[in-house]
UniProtKB/TrEMBL annotation:
This is Filamentous hemagglutinin-like protein.
Length: 282
């Protein structure tokens, strides 16, 4: 159940009877049975989310940055203050955003610099975005660092890092939380490691996929830890020296390709649209 109000308005709460036995549906990303959302309808509304990073927001409609000449440094700004609230895209998309760092000290570049441990981003599309990091920090389209929950979200566009730094990714640069039922079709370029969903994964990625082309060192889906039901939709060939099973530095660890097969993956030699063709099992 949701209550919606404009970003420049207020509301007076009434009385609602809730089900004490309520539990959220799997993968929904919901935190409560009744949620009051502040609507985000404009570029200015989105920029103002940084003024209350613990708030609960919903996109009231698609937002298009095409008419905005200024670059956006992301929610949390140059300090990468963590977003600890809830952001529900309601199936809408943020389009044509130009993501650029605001200062050399900015650690992460993405629409959300950091999603904190209590933060939730769900049902959100970030489409035809351009994230360009000319510094050494990680670059991604949706989140630089995710410590919370990302659910039913997707990204497209270009994620690029111009210098030899911490890598670039289509969805999340570093995942220490949970990503579920999400995807990226972004083109990813970088002088260092690049990843379809995430460059580094220390958390959980569930039923998510990527499908585009990458340049330089590749982390196809995720890094170490738990990766369940991932899909790789595009064939790619890269320098053998820089390709790991899911990430080179973690070769030899166990990764789950689906819920039936558990592999010890070493050096990948070839990838095909259906997944991988050859691997070296230990």
């Amino acid at each position: 159940m949701a209550a919606l109000f404009d970003a420049n308005g207020t509301y007076t709460g009434g009385t609602v009877k809730l089900n004490n036995a309520w539990v959220p549906a799997p993968f929904s990303g919901l935190r409560s049975q009744l949620t009051a959302y502040r609507l985000v309808n404009t570029v200015a509304d989105l920029q103002n989310v940084s003024n209350n990073l613990a708030g609960t927001y919903a996109l009231g409609k698609d937002i298009d940055f095409s008419g905005s000449s200024a670059a956006f440094s992301g929610v949390g700004g140059a300090t990468n203050a963590a977003f600890t609230g809830q952001f529900d895209g309601m199936g809408h998309a943020i389009r044509n955003v130009n993501l650029q760092v605001a200062a050399d000290s900015q650690t992460y570049l993405a629409l959300f610099g950091v999603i904190g441990t209590r933060g939730v981003v769900r049902n959100l599309g970030v489409e035809n975005a351009y994230a360009n990091g000319w510094y050494s920090g990680p670059v991604a389209i949706l989140a630089g660092l995710n410590q919370g929950l990302i659910s039913y979200s997707h990204s497209s566009g270009t994620s690029s890092q111009s210098w030899d730094g911490s890598g670039s990714a289509g969805l999340v640069a570093r995942n220490d939380g949970t990503i579920q039922r999400s995807s990226s079709t972004a083109s990813v370029f970088g002088m260092d490691a690049v990843g379809g969903l995430a460059v580094i994964n220390n958390g959980l990625i569930v039923q998510s996929f990527r499908g585009r082309q990458y340049r330089r060192r590749v982390a196809l889906l995720c890094g170490r830890s738990r990766c369940h039901q991932q899909w790789d939709n595009h064939a790619i060939l890269f320098d053998r020296q820089r390709i790991g099973g899911l990430r080179r530095r973690h070769c030899g660890q166990q990764f789950r390709y689906d819920q039936r097969i558990l592999l010890h993956v070493a050096l990948q030699s070839e990838f095909v649209p259906a997944g991988w063709r050859r691997y070296c099992a230990q």
